[in-house]
Amino acid sequence: MERAIQGVAEALRDARSVVIVTGAGVSAESRIPTFRDAMEGLWKSFDPMKLATPEAFEADPETVSRWYDFRRAKCLEAIPNGGHVALARMQREIESRGGSFTLLTQNVDRLHQRAGSRDVVELHGSIMVWRCVETGRRYEDLPVPFEEFPPRSPEDTLLRPDVVWFGEALPEAALERAFEASSACDLFFSVGTSAVVYPAAGFVDVARQGGAQAVEVNRDETPISDAVDWSLRGASGEILPRLVAEAFR
Ligand code: OAD
Questions:
Q1: pLDDT band per the 50, 70, 90 thresholds, residue 30
Q2: Ligand 1 touching residue 126 (CB < 6 A)
Q3: pLDDT digit string, tens, across residues 162-174
Q4: Please, what are the domains in the chain?
Q5: Residue 24 beta carbon below 6 angstroms from any ligand 1 atom
Q6: How does DSSP assign the chain, residue by residue?
């Protein structure tokens, strides 16, 4: 592992354009459950088809909004971990050298932003933002917990979480930025994601087709582990700080 970290650290020092895609594994060490992990994964205790689809919300907006309100409170209680902090430092170091850095996250918890990452691309939206189902108007900093379920806007219209549900398209602007950055980068990281949900899982191929080297940081094997140049197996909260310390001594 040490030699791999040194190899990646060297590539990071020389990189002119870095893209990172993160998944729930980065927030696991902040005690936010992942989706597919065997024991504590969310999808083990809740049926996503009953809670994370437009049809589920249509059928029972109270239950779905209660579940998202509960998860939003958990995210607010969570503390960014060493992996989040390391990625924020990586961005500062790369940008201070005149390089470009793009953080694409599938996470909706805003822990990257709370750790200091800037201009984060939220591929699946954010649980901290709720939008009016009629006008699309977005609201942040709403009371936690909500006073009523389902929550309503000041204009007394129904509010839904501004997250991407199964069967919904990703935000157009986020997708565009993700494809552009991935195709132009020279170093691509996939961190803490099972790499099974597209299009996020496909950005590593876009990067490699553009000539980038690819790194995976994951506790377990994933479908992209054999396709990357370096596979750093372990907890992102432990590996990322070591990597950044080694690269930017
Ligand atoms: P998953 O739960 O599918 O995968 C979490 C990944 O993180 C797995 O590969 C774990 O092995 C790994 N992992 C767990 N703890 C880790 C740690 N401490 N350090 C490093 N890796 C760790 O979560 P995602 O890949 O983020 O989509 O799921 C992708 C999407 O599927 C989510 O954004 C969500 C879900 O359906 C939508 O809601 C649209």
A1: very high
A2: no
A3: 999 999 999 999 9
A4: 2-32+79-124+169-247 (3.40.50.1220), 41-77+128-163 (3.30.1600.10)
A5: yes
A6: -HHHHHHHHHHHHH-SEEEEEE-HHHHHTTT---SS-TTT-HHHHS-HHHHSSHHHHHH-HHHHHHHHHHHHHHHHH----HHHHHHHHHHHHHHHTT-EEEEEE---S-HHHHTT--S-EETTEEEEEEEETTT--EE-S--SS-SSSS-B-TTS-BEEEEEPPTTPPPPHHHHHHHHHHHHH-SEEEEES--S-STTGGGHHHHHHHTT-EEEEEESS--TTTTTSSEEEES-HHHHHHHHHHHHT-
